[in-house]
Every structure is written in structure tokens, then in C-alpha cells.
Design brief:
Order of helices and strands: HEHHHEEEHEHEE
CATH superfamily of one domain: Gcn5-related N-acetyltransferase (GNAT)
Distance between the termini: 52 Å
Strand order of the largest sheet: 1-2-3-4
Helix content: 25-40%
CATH architecture of one domain: 3-Layer(aba) Sandwich
Shape: globular
Largest sheet: 4 strands, antiparallel
CATH class of one domain: Alpha Beta
Number of strands: 7
Number of helices: 6
Amino acid sequence: MRRAISLDSKEARLTGHLRVRQTRGSDFETLCRWAGNDKSPSIRMMGGLFASDSRREAFEMALKEKIFHLLILEKYESGKWVAVGTVISNKNGELYLVLDSSFRGRGLSVPAIRAAIGYLHEYPLLELTACVGWEEEVSRKAFEKAGFACREERAVEGMTCLEYVRQMKAQCPIYNVFI
């Protein structure tokens, strides 16, 4: 005999849970707000993707063409899913994480990165990379806790950063097998 799960029990299990979903056209305003209010290297490195002169049509076209993975991170809070940040990954596996400023400092970075890794594991990426500024010690520690290792120092758009890398899939050697 199955017991019915009460609404309170379901609420208690999901509270604080993070999930990742594909971005929809209706997320455009939220992403523009995050990009406009944030001066983090992740926003600067994304370029003009959400610049104020961007048009909704161009955004929706980019989503349809799947040029990159644009994901929304949501947290279950007060009985509903609330958008807390975004993860952007291009086809080369370069990863950008942006958390809403009201959710920073709550210990969500590492679970957010892990949730994104879980989502991106389905795609043919050999590795994920993230550029983190020298001065961003909290971000560096978050990527390290999520399984990334510092590979090298490099310059990106005039900014010196550390490149962190995480292996996704083992690379198979290329050779013919005859049976």
C-alpha cells in the first residue's frame, strides 16, 4: 500500500534544492538585468550577448540555433522555483557562471557548478574550462571544490586570469579495430 506524500513533506524535501533548465525566451529580461547589474569577469567575458542594444529576436534566434548552452539555475524556495543564476557554456566547453547578487554568499556556487556539470555531461565535451580572475579567491575555491584544477594563467580580453579545467569524458585513441 502506497502512502500519499503530504504537501508539507514534499516541500521539506525540495527546499534548497537546485535544478538546471534550458533558457526560454521569457528569461530574456532576467538575463539582461543580471548582465546590466554585474561587473564580474564572467559578464565581461560573455561580451555583448545581453547588451542593452541586443534585441529579443536575436536572443531567441541564438537559443534556437543552439550556438551555446544557456542554462538557468533555479532554487526551490517558499513553494516555488526561483531563478538564482545562469550558466553559459559554448561548444568548446568554456563555462561562465553568474549568480544573482541577492543569492551570493549563501554557499550556492559549488552546488550550482556541480548541477551544471551534471547537465552538460550529456554533451560531447572532453573538458570544461573556466577563467577566474586572480582577485576572485571565492570563485577560485568554488571551482576547485567542484572538481576543477588550475591549468595555466592566461589573458582574456585584456584581463589576466587563471584557467581552471575539469575533465568530462575520457578521450579514446583513434585507431581501427578489426574483428
